[in-house]
Amino acid sequence: MTALDLSADVGLLTVFLATANICLGLLIAVRYSPSRLWPHRRANIFAVHSWTAYFLMTFLLIHPVILLFSTQTHWRLLDLALPIWSPVQPIENTIGAVSLYLIVVVVVTSYFRVRIGRHRWKLFHYLVYVAAVGAFIHGILTDPALKGNAVDPLDGEKLFVESCLFVVVLTTVWAWRYRRQKDREERARGIGRYRLLKSANARD
């Protein structure tokens, strides 16, 4: 296995972790209850979400560093930090680097969310969606061999990235519909309580 192969495999692992992290984040955002709903067990979604974020950031940092050991293409630290000057695919690599930096910002600010305040932290946290878009673009457009070959959307690695993107899109649509349904139910319960209270006051 070459350094390029290892870097590509780590990249696929980061895509999987990003997918899992985003889906868990969406569950948290809609206040999904695994004990009340499926799988009807107590589970700390927030803790799993946090740990996947730490693993994601770790492997995101490892992914480009492996390229320094490549014998096929010469990479410098500057090429990794600012890929716009990288020896191959500078645009695709720059998109990936921007995603990495945004995720680092999200993870670090999440660690200090109590100090910086919840409102300000949430503004930083929204950057994860921008990072996710960039990560998927990078994963789909980048040639694993780093030779600038045309993208083959039916390649095994690309199919994996595309499948993860499909899962994120499906989960996002589900979360949006779930949140709308939950809001309607809460409004209905609120109206019901208001009518009961009004009726009780009228009898008094």
Report on this model:
The protein is elongated, with a radius of gyration of 22 Å. The chain starts with a helix and ends with a helix. The chain is mainly α. It contains eight helices and no strands. The chain has one domain.
Keywords:
mainly alpha; elongated; 0% strand
- Poorly predicted ranges: none
Number of domains: 1
Instruction: Give the H and E element order.
Output: HHHHHHHH
Query: On the 0-100 scale, what is the average pLDDT?
Result: 88
> Rg, please?
22 Å
What characteristic shape results from the CA principal axes? elongated
Q: Which secondary structure elements does this structure contain, and how are they paired or packed?
A:
Layout (H helix, E strand, L loop, with lengths): L2 H27 L15 H21 L11 H5 L8 H22 L1 H4 L1 H8 L1 H15 L14 H48 L1
Sum this structure up briefly:
This protein is mostly helical and 204 residues long. Helices cover 74% and strands 0% of the residues.
